[in-house]
Amino acid sequence: MKKLLMALVVILCAVSTVFAAEDLSTKLDKNKDGKVSKKEYTSAVSKTFDKLDKNRDGSITRDELGHMDKKDQETFIKENDADGDGIIIKKEFEQAAEKRFRQLDKNRNGFISKDEWAGGRSEMYSPFALFTF
Ligand SMILES: [Ca+2]
Ligand SMILES: [Ca+2]
Ligand SMILES: [Ca+2]
Questions:
Q1: 90 touches 59 (CB < 8 A)
Q2: Closest CA to 111 of 19, 22, 8, 30
Q3: Which of 3, 66, 105, 108 has its CA 20 to 30 A from that of 99?
Q4: How many domains does one find in the chain?
Q5: Is position 16 within any domain?
Q6: Which of these, 78, 81, 89, lies nearest to 124 by C-alpha position?
Q7: In the prediction, which pLDDT does 72 show?
Q8: Does residue 2 form part of some domain?
Q9: CA separation, residue 51 to residues 14, 47, 111, 122 (Å)
Q10: Cα 41 to averaged position of ligand 1 atoms, centre (Å)
């Protein structure tokens, strides 16, 4: 009986790991229609910005990215800091995110399907790692 219980625990752990790694698109897909709309995406982007902007001054600076490793910080700043001043204001972040949405939305229907999402993840730096909510 104990063995069975152990086996069950192992299985449950494995299952929950799968759920944790479950595609982010599921999290972003608030209305559960199987795809991420522009609106769902934008609201996630906005939340992510607010979360990263720890001191709430409307911009993301390097010291607010301390939880990321150096390489990710560089990539993050490079991808989002359009004017190259080392500070990412919300507008820059939103514009970079918008560009990513267009890249992901391969068939240009205004939604990112699960397939498109999965395809984009392997092609690009993982801005998705940032969507940690
Ligand atoms: Ca949706
Ligand atoms: Ca800030
Ligand atoms: Ca900037």
A1: yes
A2: 30
A3: 66
A4: 1
A5: no
A6: 78
A7: 87
A8: no
A9: 29, 6, 24, 25
A10: 9
Domain residues for the domain of 98 are 24-130
What is the band of 7 on the pLDDT scale with cuts at 50, 70, 90? low
CATH number at residue 53: 1.10.238.10
User: 3-state secondary structure string, 52-92?
Assistant: HCCCCCCEECHHHHCCCCHHHHHHHHHHHCCCCCCCEEHHH
- For the CA of 57, the nearest ligand: 2
Tens of pLDDT along 45-91?
A: 999 999 999 999 999 999 999 988 898 899 899 989 999 999 999 99
- Residue 100 domain-assigned? yes
**What pTM value is reported for the model?**
0.74
Residue found by looking up tokens 């939604």 in the block: 111
Which is nearest to 29 in space by CA: 109, 117, 100, 122?
117
